[in-house]
Amino acid sequence: MKKLLLLLLVIVVVVGATAWSKRVDIILSLAKYKTSQKYADVAPTREIPWQRGPETPADLVGERLPNIILIVADDLGYNDISTFGGGVGGMQTPGIDRLAAEGAVFTQSYSGASTCAPSRAMMMTGRYPTRTGFEFTPTPAGMAKIVGVVAASMDSGLPSSIYDEALEESQPPYERKGLPASEVTIAETLKAQGYNTAHIGKWHLGRENGMAPHDQGFDDSLLMQSGLNLPEDDPNVVNAKLSFDPIDRFLWAGIGFSATYNSGDAEKFKPGGYLTDYWTDESIKVIKANKNRPFFLYLAHWGPHTPLQATRQDYDALSGIEPHRKRVYAGMIRAVDRSVSRILDTLEEEGIADNTVVVFTSDNGGAGYIGIPDVNSPYRGWKITMFEGGIRVPMFVKWPAKIASGTTVKTPVAHIDMMPTLAAAAGAAIPVDVAIDGVDLLPLATGEGSDNWSRETLFWQNGHYQVVRHGDWKLQLNDRPTDGLQKWLYNLAEDPTEQNNLAASHPEKLKELGALLAAHQASSRGPLYESVVQMPVMVDKTLAEKFVEGDEYVYTPN
Questions:
Q1: How many Cα atoms occupy the beta-carbon half-sphere of 222 within 13 Å?
Q2: CA dihedral in degrees (259, 262, 267, 270; nearest 10)?
Q3: DSSP H helical segments within 352-502, as ranges?
Q4: 3-class SS at 407?
Q5: Rounded CA gap, 142 and 353, in Å?
Q6: Count of H helices and E strands in the chain?
Q7: Left, alpha or beta for 406 (phi > 0: left; psi -120 to 50: alpha)?
Q8: Nearest residue to 115 (alpha-carbon basis) of 393, 436, 323, 328
Q9: DSSP string, 163-193
Q10: d(CA 125, CA 179)
Q11: Which of 68, 292, 27, 96 is nearest to 197 (CA)?
Q12: pLDDT digits 0-9 by tens, 264-314
């Protein structure tokens, strides 16, 4: 009996040790199985019944309200396009370059936040998160916990993430973490002005309780319901998995390939091809169906966000780019650029280009976790940080009827300005019963009234990580849980790439900008829900590089 008990004990120990050593693989396998069950009932691709305008126009194109198209890339770095002299691996982006050349280029344009969801909320509302409460990017249930386990098993050298499991369990589900239905979106504003409104692609602002796009002012919504650009085993896709990124490892296990139409999470079906191209195909259908009446199209691309997946055609066209993940990433940007070209060509073919406002931007800066060092060059920092690399983004506005080709605007602007700008283009009234923080950019873009521009201050906030730009001065404050308050003060006119921290040498400026942040925070309504995780992010190294003592990093809530 003793020998049997001893044998059983040995077996338990061996099985336990094996399970522990393979815990990450086991957890990810379970996540992948759960995902396969969730998407087991995805229906085949379906035809989208886009609403149609009149077959013949009621008036001349130039005599009606302008069409409006807002194109947003996801995690596109400042140096990912050739417009500013860059381009991944030297790759050109002629479609985006064309849009920039034919309109206004805002050389100091900022995202609303350093992560996607709050930034998109600010585009939709023109309001800071301190007013809406939508401060943190929502993540699916269990993601933070799984990512934490995966990260803990890796030898990155970084300090540990901080995860509050009890707090996560007390919060609303992922589908109910979003922009409150009470907020007035640009889609609602334009719809009230007589526009047909269509959303295609990413949303990330909630799917239930009146938060879904078709509940927030869009007549039609073709929603990215999950996150694969194509199924992993599709013969037309080339994948690049990032072994050094715990979030990437979760994504490959935890997301599927599906879309919905005007139903939030219900009635899932397979998209009709690689997402960037599929969204573009459907966008062209929207344009053609509504060319005889004013329309607003919000095309929110998933690319080049991870998981890194390029079409085989785009990958093969970029044979000179190395390493593999960089080539795949470049292929994703090539697809986004092709999308912009196709949209512009369609407007020309339909004879409505002159009276169409086309805006292109990115929700935040390029990500350091993809392991490509130059995506935000020449700026420091990545997505999730609020150094210039994390929040400086391209913004181009084309409107041939009003904006001269080759216009350059050097005034600092931000995503909060999108809502009042598009409303002004449509002659629509913005809400008067709520504070709108953004301002109309058309006077800057057209030169009509630009001398009256007076705004000096922009704010960013992600929990304890708070930033203000006032004139040429920028202050970042981060109450890092490991070792106290970090302070970075820069004069961007003299030091646009944030190399020389002036916090110690300019106490008077530190005090002045600190007071602005304190006043901004004092008026905050507080977040709708608390952050459940804080992540360490290196400022000057990608996640593919080893963290060593002395490397600058931030802890940021999410």
A1: 30
A2: -20
A3: 388-391, 418-425, 442-446
A4: strand
A5: 46
A6: 16, 20
A7: left
A8: 393
A9: E-HHHHHTSPPGGG-SS-TTSPPHHHHHHHT
A10: 9
A11: 68
A12: 778 999 999 999 999 999 999 999 999 999 999 999 999 999 999 999 999
Distances (CA, A) of 291 to 192, 284, 352, 400, 519: 19, 10, 7, 17, 46
- CA-CA distances (angstroms) from residue 56 to 221, 288, 289, 401, 456? 25, 12, 11, 22, 47
In tens, the pLDDT along 80-123 reads: 999 999 999 999 999 999 999 999 999 999 999 999 999 999 99
Single pTM value for the model: 0.95
Dihedral, 462, 467, 468, 473 alpha carbons, nearest 10: -160
Beta pairing, strands 259-261 & 109-110 = unpaired
Token pair for residue 196? 């047909």
Report the C-alpha gap between 530 and 510 in whole angstroms: 28
* CA-wise closest residue to 67 among 57, 79, 81, 77: 57
Domains annotated for the chain, with CATH where assigned, are: 23-50+65-141+184-249+256-363+392-401+408-456 (3.40.720.10)
Do residues 523 and 547 touch, judged by C-beta distance below 8 A? Answer: no
Distance CA 62, CA 74 (A): 33
Residues comprising the chain, all counted: 558
